[in-house]
């Protein structure tokens, strides 16, 4: 790492399917590309550790399935191009002129790019049920990380609660890996309510049949699938039982692990900090940046690709990444508008098909546990251990703005800067104040978006590069 300010034509943040595809497309068009990623290896969450598992753990790769193996094709294409790749790099500051700051090897460094593509993907929607802070209660994404990154499989009784395709995908993977999966508590509304959104395409029918095949295999394997509501985790020092209601009757399951999931939402930390314009998407019950067909935001040099721009899923992310790269190559003068548009046509068509299926998924698996009124004792902010009752007391005292509530309660002031509680707080406020989520907005995210130590900040000061924690221009939009 040098002390000189580094630069490139294009910086891409995030090495998931959208980020990798964008880097490959841009490099093929002659663009000077740098790819930043927090993780040690390519793949993001969906294709985490794909290169290692493909070469050294074939059995695990086979269990994770054909969709996971697609990540190897992206990784192989990436390795064939001249792309500067910076793993272990946490980008904590981006300005609207293309300057960004990142930490790598415990050192903070400034970087400049003419164009920036943010491909940080999605994050799991928090599911704050009673007892969700007990040890051995975690998200499905965390379980997938353990499996893909370390080949760790739980060996004690498991219950999965929530909804969405990922529930059945992870369930089938766990069962095939020999994990003792006891039950799935399905919290989704009846699928019959969403059949009108199902696309009449052969590929969509194949996806539906694949999902039904998973359910059939799980039932044959002895896994109970129960339509449930009011799920809660119980235990003294760790999870012991899972409480739920089915058809108005309460019941319990003994379990050592509870995995929660109710879909994913765009990761908007960087775009929020940049004051990009955002819009509330009622279909996914979350905020997302306002973008054009290429992923460009209201900040001229910033583009968003992948699920960070709106949930399209891993299948649609590469197309979004390539579209963002095509437009960046055009704006940087590497290709003409005609070349860009010709190359983009099949990508737009592919993305249209993926989004039509995603629309059905969004309606079929709308969240229920994560948007229901919370009990007063339920912790909302894990970082600061703030309960729903505490927040209601503040609201009843007259606080009506989410940043005002943050300032007086400290909810959202922890290391995650509200990533894990913002949507929950907004839901609670809209219910208590009898208003809409759009009226509540979300936290005003401030840079740096990730913790930076004094040691790292001191290194940045010693580089002689001017430090700026944000833009000097007026904010653009607000969520």
TrEMBL record:
Question: Where is the chain membrane-spanning?
Answer: none
UniProt xrefs under InterPro entries? BFD-like_2Fe2S-bd_dom (IPR007419), BFD-like_2Fe2S-bd_dom_sf (IPR041854), FAD/NAD-bd_sf (IPR036188), FAD/NAD-binding_dom (IPR023753), Metab_Enz_Cyan_OpOx_G3PDH (IPR051691), Opine_Oxase_asu/HCN_bsu (IPR017224)
Q: Tell me which residues make up the BFD-like [2Fe-2S]-binding domain.
A: 379-430
Please name the source species. Answer: Pseudochrobactrum kiredjianiae
The taxonomy runs: Bacteria, Pseudomonadati, Pseudomonadota, Alphaproteobacteria, Hyphomicrobiales
Highest taxon above the source species: Bacteria
| Name of the protein | NAD(P)/FAD-dependent oxidoreductase
Using the record's annotation, list all stretches that form the FAD/NAD(P)-binding domain.
10-320
Query: Which terms are listed as keywords in the entry?
Result: Oxidoreductase
């Amino acid at each position: 790492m040098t002390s000189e300010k580094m630069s490139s034509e294009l910086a891409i943040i995030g090495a998931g399917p959208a980020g990798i595809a964008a880097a490959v497309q841009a490099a093929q068009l002659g663009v000077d590309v740098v790819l930043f990623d927090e993780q040690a290896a390519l793949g993001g969450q969906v294709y985490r550790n794909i290169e290692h598992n493909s070469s050294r753990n074939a059995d695990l790769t086979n269990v994770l399935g054909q969709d996971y193996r697609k990540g190897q094709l992206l990784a192989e294409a990436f390795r064939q191009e001249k792309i500067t790749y910076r793993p272990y790099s946490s980008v904590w500051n981006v300005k609207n002129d293309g300057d960004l700051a990142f930490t790598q090897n415990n050192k903070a460094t400034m970087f400049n790019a003419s164009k920036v593509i943010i491909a940080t993907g999605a994050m799991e929607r928090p599911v704050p049920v009673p007892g969700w802070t007990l040890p051995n209660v975690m998200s499905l994404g965390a379980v997938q990380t353990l499996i893909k990154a370390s080949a760790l499989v739980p060996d004690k009784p498991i219950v999965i609660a929530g909804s969405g395709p990922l529930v059945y995908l992870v369930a089938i993977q766990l069962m095939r890996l020999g994990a003792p999966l006891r039950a799935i508590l399905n919290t989704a509304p009846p699928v019959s309510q969403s059949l009108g959104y199902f696309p009449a395409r052969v590929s969509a029918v194949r996806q539906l049949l694949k999902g039904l095949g998973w359910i059939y295999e799980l039932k044959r394997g002895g896994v109970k699938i129960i339509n449930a509501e009011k799920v809660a985790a119980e235990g003294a020092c760790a999870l012991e039982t899972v409480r739920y209601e089915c058809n108005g009757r309460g019941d319990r399951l003994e379990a050592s692990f509870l995995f929660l999931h109710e879909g994913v939402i765009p990761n908007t930390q960087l775009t929020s900090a940049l004051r990009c314009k955002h819009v509330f998407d009622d279909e996914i019950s979350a905020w997302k940046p306002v973008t054009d067909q290429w992923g460009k935001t209201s900040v001229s040099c910033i583009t968003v690709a992948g699920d960070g721009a709106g949930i399209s899923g891993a299948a649609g992310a590469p197309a979004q990444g390539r579209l963002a790269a095509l437009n960046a190559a055009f704006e940087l003068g590497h290709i003409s508008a005609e070349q860009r548009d010709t190359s983009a046509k099949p990508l737009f068509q592919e993305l249209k098909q993926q989004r039509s299926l995603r629309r059905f998924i969004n309606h079929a698996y709308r969240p229920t546990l994560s948007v229901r009124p919370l009990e007063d004792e339920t912790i909302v902010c894990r970082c600061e251990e703030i309960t729903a009752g505490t927040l209601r007391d503040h609201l009843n005292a007259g606080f009506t703005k989410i940043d005002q509530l943050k300032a007086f309660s400290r909810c959202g002031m922890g290391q995650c800067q509200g990533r894990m509680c913002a949507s929950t707080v907004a839901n609670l406020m809209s219910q208590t104040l009898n208003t809409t989520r759009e009226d509540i907005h979300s936290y005003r995210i401030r840079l740096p978006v990730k913790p930076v130590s004094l040691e790292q900040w001191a290194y940045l000061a010693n580089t002689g590069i001017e430090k700026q924690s944000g833009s000097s221009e007026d904010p653009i939009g607000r969520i």
